[in-house]
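To whoever is on call:

I kicked off a structure prediction for a single chain this morning and the downstream step that reads the tokens threw a length-mismatch warning. I double-checked the sequence; it's 732 residues and nothing unusual in it as far as I can see. Pasting both halves so you can look.
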Amino acid sequence: NIFPEDPEDGLVKANMEKLTFYALSAPEKLDRIGAYLSERLSRDVARHRYGYVCIAMEALDQLLMACHCQTINLFVESFLTMVRKLLEADKPNLQILGTNSFVKFANIEEDTPSYHRSYDFFVSRFSEMCHSSYEDPDIRTKIRMAGIRGLQGVVRKTVNDELQANIWDPQHMDKIVPSLLFNLQQEEGIERSPSPETEKEKESPVELTERCFRELLGRAAYGNIKNAVKPVLMHLDNHSLWESKTFAVRCFKIVMYSIQSQHSHLVIQQLLGHLDANSKNSARVRAGIVEVISEAAVIEASGSIGPTVLEVFNTLLKQLRLSVDYELTGSYDSFANMGSKVIKVHEERQLQEAVIKTVGSFAYTLPPYQRSEVMLFIIGKIPVPGMYPALGSVTAGFQSTNILTALPTSFLDPLLSFTLMEDAEIRLLVLDILIGIIDRHDNRHKFSPVRIISDISVLKLKVDKCSRQDNLFMKKHSQRLYRHIYLACKEESSVQRHFESLYTLLALICVELANEEVVVDLIRLALALQDLALTEEALPVYTRCAIHALSAVYLNLICQLTTVPTFCQHVHEVRPTVCLSALNPQHIQRSLICLISTKVLFVQTKIAEILGGSGYNTERLATAYIPQITGLTLSLSFKYTGCPVVCLIFFDTVIHSVNVEELERERRRQVVERFQTAPFEEIAAHCGARVSPCLASIQQPPPSPSGSVGNGHGPSRSIPVYEMKFPDLCVY
């Protein structure tokens, strides 16, 4: 009775209300109602009576919205059978009608679960509709949008229902994700002219697709990320979309912004694995993947790439090394053959730049302690070709308030050892790294170019008072820093850029980390460099002149920072401007004058006398600086890919100190063994004899205000605890 004689009149509302009331009153009849409507719809579809088809679907929709009883499952089966019948029809209008009904059904929260319902057909059919190639473009667009909404409905209906087949299984994701990406990609070739109709539309196909894709990714749990992302990678591979980069970057921006933030590192790991899998693909493809990784790293600004941070950099550095090898050998294979792909050098260079940029992007998101680990990790890769720029990209923009965290011993020691390598490029790079880490107030550029400064205020330096961490760092590492700076100045292959970097490093130490004691040591170091230039006749003339110039210009800077007028006067009397020209190799003749003229030499005793009047440590100032060589240096030559390289190995202690440590270790072992094996009475007797005097001294009464203890035995004072000499066994 709900069907009118003329389908144009639409559903008979009065009878529909009666039917709904009947279904609610007798829910056990729902399955028969559904079976009848399904049979009626199938008959009307076969007879092309599409008006009655629409009425049947409208009735089904209203019954679904009204009934949520436990027996609705049987009715739903009839409903899904009818929807399937419409989706299988050739008429686009029927397909769209079936999709709209399914979407309404997908938004209903059922009271009871279904153990046997399957949505495999709907995933396949809606995916097929997303790829519709119908001739009429308007109808084609409507069919595709219906397919997208249908997939969205399937996801909503199944993603939280544990009883349903897992929608995240590859068999489903391999259909859903490519269908969405196909429609997302259509925007690139479409130019729309604004019209009243399009302006009134709520969403374009691309906007709907993006919203659906974001919703899908947002529902992905930890274990589902891989299955959701893999089809994206495959789609980009199959359609050669890595080379253009634009669409690939857009896809993964959607991915990174849509998934839960704690899962971001899983996406990056998949991208890295995909990069490895394409190691022998063209440079443009690899560069596209690297570009996507770089963009993903910027989005993942939480600073957590996951538990395997070094593996991320290991993959990127491996790709950098492979690209350099490909460029050098001209082949993707270890042995060139006629079947090898042609290597395009300019494309490999672009890839290398992209990898270096990506290394920097990742490092920028890390906290200082992890960035130090990464730099140490990259240093471990040297002398592999291509590693130097990657190391520099990590230090770019490095900012750390705690120098102890930024330069731990485990990182500082190998870094300083590289300042003495034979390779001049590595030495310069390491100096730049030290400068970048120590420069916490962006002062480095104010010391370039190197020049004599008569008024320090013109530099507008940003200076803060040294923190406790700064003082601890210098107390622990200053002598090593000074020693390596001193030895680095003696490298014969150094050029002007090396000495300019050394000056910048010394200047930053003075500005960023110097207390009064450090200033004294820096003055001693500068004077020692002056003596080095005068006495080391075996060094090249330019090196000696440059060292002398470095000493002069640095003392000029220190005198400006100490603001002691007499010190400044003495420095200006020496005329450091004359010596400064020595940094330029073209002025060798003028520089030689500095080395032989006593008028341009600083006098250590005079400086000590001047600064002693201002409260500086005169005794320490008058003591010449001598590098404290605490270990042995061994140079080993070896070859890597045909290139000679010098590796410097530093031992932490000399042989004598090793023997002393062995004796101390043996003594401690014996003490521990005694306490573990000796009888208690023996230990008590041994310790009691040594502890009793200490206990007696502690038990002495404190002095009275008059100086007497008040026991009639004359004046006496107790020994302060901090002055007592405790036995070794009493001290932890």
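Update from on-call: the warning came from a stale cache, not from the record. Cleared it. Sanity check on the structure: The CA atoms of residues 422 and 646 lie 6 Å apart.
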